[in-house]
Specification:
The protein has 239 residues and is an alpha/beta fold. 39% of the residues lie in helices and 23% in strands. The protein contains 8 helices and 14 strands. The protein is elongated. The protein starts with 8 loop residues before the first strand and ends in an 8-residue tail after the last strand.
Length: 239
């Protein structure tokens, strides 16, 4: 993808209200991004396939479909970061959006400057860790390659969503140590997250099922009640 003329990256804005999409697209361009705009669910899927955006800003209420269905389809196709945009602002709406695979959630009306700052934060998180590529990490039968974003159990590749992979990687980086709920939400979801961490429990449950891990007798992910989670210590670790 050629983003030489847009150092910030390419943002696909899916919003049917021109009074919102047009000034926001202009704000994105002033901030150094390339902005593509569509008003429909069909246009969103078409442009996402053709233009290979770095991030999709997706309204939930579209004239030809539900943004949540678009989110599901985008997540089925790729790991492109998604920021959901909606007029609703309840915590349950936010949880549903994040559980569908969205990376952040913005409520109308919003400040363009604040949303652009959040877009940059999502792009930083999705772009991987700074510095040299991380070495593969192995604990028991589980091995992850953070650079290639591949996880294997007993040599068989696991089918993980981006959030599931990021959660597993964060736990395995600190194998044998307790990682607090707050730290996991900040590192895997949003450093500015406030409110319920129910989405974390949902993702831990999904991850356990894919690892074949019994929550009552966990081999890998142990719940430390009231604090967070601890991944099994590597062999030879005396903790």
């Amino acid at each position: 993808m050629d983003t030489a003329s847009a150092p910030g990256g390419r943002i696909l804005v899916v919003e049917d209200e021109a009074s919102i999409s047009e000034p926001f697209a202009e704000a994105l361009r002033r901030a150094g991004f390339e902005a593509l705009v569509t008003a429909t669910a069909a246009g969103a899927l078409e442009l996402a396939a053709e233009a290979d955006p770095d991030l999709v800003m997706l309204d939930l209420a579209l004239p030809d479909g539900d943004g949540r269905d678009v989110c599901r389809e985008l997540r089925r196709r790729s790991d492109v970061p998604i920021v959901m945009l909606t007029a609703r602002g309840t915590e349950m709406d936010k949880i549903v959006g994040l559980e569908l695979g969205a990376d952040d959630y913005v409520v109308k009306p919003f400040s363009a400057a604040e949303v652009i700052s959040r877009i940059r934060a999502v792009l930083r998180r999705s772009g991987g860790r700074d510095g040299a590529p991380e070495e593969p990490i192995r604990v028991g039968a589980i091995e992850i390659d953070p650079a290639a974003r591949i996880a294997r159990l007993g040599g068989i590749e696991l089918d993980l969503s981006r959030k599931e992979f990021d959660l597993l990687a964060e736990l395995m980086r600190h194998a044998g140590q307790v990682v607090t709920r707050e730290d996991l939400m900040a590192r895997v979801w949003d450093v500015n997250w406030f409110g319920s961490t129910k989405t974390l429990d949902v993702h831990v449950g999904w991850l356990r099922r894919k690892l074949g891990d019994d929550p009552n007798r966990p081999a890998y992910i142990e719940t430390v009640r009231g604090v967070g989670f601890r991944f099994a210590a590597p062999e030879g670790d005396g903790r």
